[in-house]
């Protein structure tokens, strides 16, 4: 469930951006739908200014489109951008898990183990939103432990395309496969096996079938729709 109240020290613009981004990723704001600054401001109990600023930031990420004299729309899913996001993640995260295999990080892997335990708990209790939140946190922790937070922040803008496609394909219900892949990645890291950790990460990030976006979800596909 999206946290509809500002987090500690979260300003109005960041709050608006976080919530609207999550609504787009979770398909609460579906591709092609028209959005209203006024309605979003009312929903978030904000003025229109931080909402407008958040939509501008999301437009830069390519998930919002402003059409003159027509309005603001949620962009259709572009498989090419999804593939770009996956390529970026694959390039960075293979190196990150390799770096995590270094001896100096072994004492900090308990946070990853705790995260996986929580993933298992929420998956068993069918709390899929919480599971996906922990899934994202699992990958974030790679960058936090290795002091590469700035790189993660730069990746996040493009990664929204990957996240949205994941929600669409899995229909918000991740499979046990995702959890098992996370466990395999962590096991390889604990063994300090860089080659195996990179192999498991590559397999993990190729779980999305991009062709299915175009074939099974044509109404959301960039190639089959234009905004009106």
Automatic annotation (TrEMBL):
Keyword Lipid biosynthesis: no
Superkingdom: Bacteria
A GO MF term: DNA-binding transcription factor activity
PROSITE patterns reported for this sequence: HTH_GNTR
UniProt keyword terms in alphabetical order: DNA-binding, Transcription, Transcription regulation
This protein's name: Uncharacterized protein
């Amino acid at each position: 469930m999206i946290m509809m109240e500002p987090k500690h020290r979260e300003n109005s613009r960041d709050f608006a951006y976080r919530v609207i981004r999550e609504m787009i990723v979770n398909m609460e704001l579906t591709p092609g739908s028209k959005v209203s600054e006024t309605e979003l401001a009312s929903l978030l109990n904000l003025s229109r200014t931080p909402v407008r600023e958040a939509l501008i930031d999301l437009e830069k990420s390519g998930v919002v489109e402003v059409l003159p004299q027509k309005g603001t729309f949620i962009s259709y899913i572009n498989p090419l951008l999804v593939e770009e996001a996956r390529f970026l993640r694959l390039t960075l995260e293979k190196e990150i898990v390799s770096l995590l295999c270094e001896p100096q990080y072994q004492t900090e892997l308990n946070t990853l183990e705790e995260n996986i335990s929580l993933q298992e708990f929420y998956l068993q209790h069918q709390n899929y939103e919480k599971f996906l939140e922990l899934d994202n946190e699992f990958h974030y922790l790679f960058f936090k432990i290795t002091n590469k937070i700035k790189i993660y922040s730069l990746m996040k803008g493009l990664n929204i395309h990957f996240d949205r496609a994941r929600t669409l394909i899995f229909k918000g219900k991740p499979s046990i496969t995702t959890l098992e892949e996370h466990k395999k990645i962590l096991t390889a890291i604990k063994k300090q096996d860089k080659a195996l950790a990179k192999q498991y990460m590559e397999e993990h990030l190729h779980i999305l079938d991009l062709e299915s976006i175009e074939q099974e979800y044509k109404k959301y596909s960039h190639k089959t729709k234009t905004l009106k």
